[in-house]
Amino acid sequence: MIREGRNRPASRGSPPLAAIGCWLSVSLLPVLVFAGETTTMKLDELWRIGGDSGDDRQFFGVIVDLDVDDEGFVHVVDQQLNRISVFAPDGSFVRRIGGEGDGPGEFRRPYRIFVSPADEVCVIAGSPRRIQRFSHTGEYRGDIAIPADDAGVVPVLMDVECTGDRVVALSYIKPNSEYVLPGARVANHVIHALDERFQETARYHAETVSEDDSKPVWSERPSLASRWDVGADGRVHVATDFLDYRVASYLPDGSADRVITREYKHRRRSAAEKRAVHEWATLNPNSMLPGTEVIIEEFDKDVMSLHARDDGTLWVLTSRGMYDRPAGSLGVFDVFDRDGAYVGQRVLLGEGDPTRDRYFFKGDRLYVVTCFTAAIATMVGDGEDNRFSDACDEPMSVICYDLGTKR
Description:
mainly beta; 4 helices; globular
């Protein structure tokens, strides 16, 4: 099943100025919310691919990212096999894009994929670091050159989400020097909007990170991965604090809209859980400088991940919703409406474990990439360390659930 033509719905543009003015009039004080109703949702599995299917077209090495275009076609990034596999909305195989190599249309270590506002499939690869453009039928269309900022620094795109005519990215910006002398320096993790030329048009959130090669430190706190998302209305939501339940929402132009918070008791880690975090941090010793101090937090992050749904709601997976969830559930999610008001919790029933799998909320579907933690550990480890791989003894798979909104 190969598509030659595409009919895409109109792009979701930015709200009119009048609407932006209305939102700017909203109080910027935190919205304190309390417990609401809890609803249990039994998810219907639509299809699954990979695992022990025996189909070579569904064989995966290490899935690191997944994106879905407006027609429901699923693009799966396999970093180990250096390829993109495309599946139809019903789960049937369509085609592969790219392959291992250094030539046009080839890449090594792909780690992110997104469908750009120009309706092109864009693949971010790490070796060498570049962004390549493909048509939806897999034809290579060239590379995207990321321009330098005013200081001459070229941002490194770590994660990307697209909505309407905008690209929103989590970027790592470090001193631009071919040779960085040992010592202290400052880097930034930035969530910002980019135009069609990938130049910054708005900045939503930034965290400054001090780095010192003479006193190297590994810490959990700088990471913003999974702690932000973009809604269909263009709002950008960011869990700005590692330990506190605090989500800042920004309008498309970068102005602050509101802060959502909730009374929440921090979840203290057990000794075994702290050891597991330490083992994960030190899984690949070659990635650390000698003498690196590893700092393990006493508590989990309050907000583990954010998911902005197309219906305007925001779903928050907390540490307790992840680790203390009911048996047989994929997690317990706090749900906020489009005005930032808390409406209750949703317990999702199905096959999936947020401590070892990775979740992708796309439209009215939830895609669960199984064995994610074990696969990453196997790829970056020395091949003999089975502390994480023992937790998953089957090939990776993708499970597609009907998430629905009318429940």
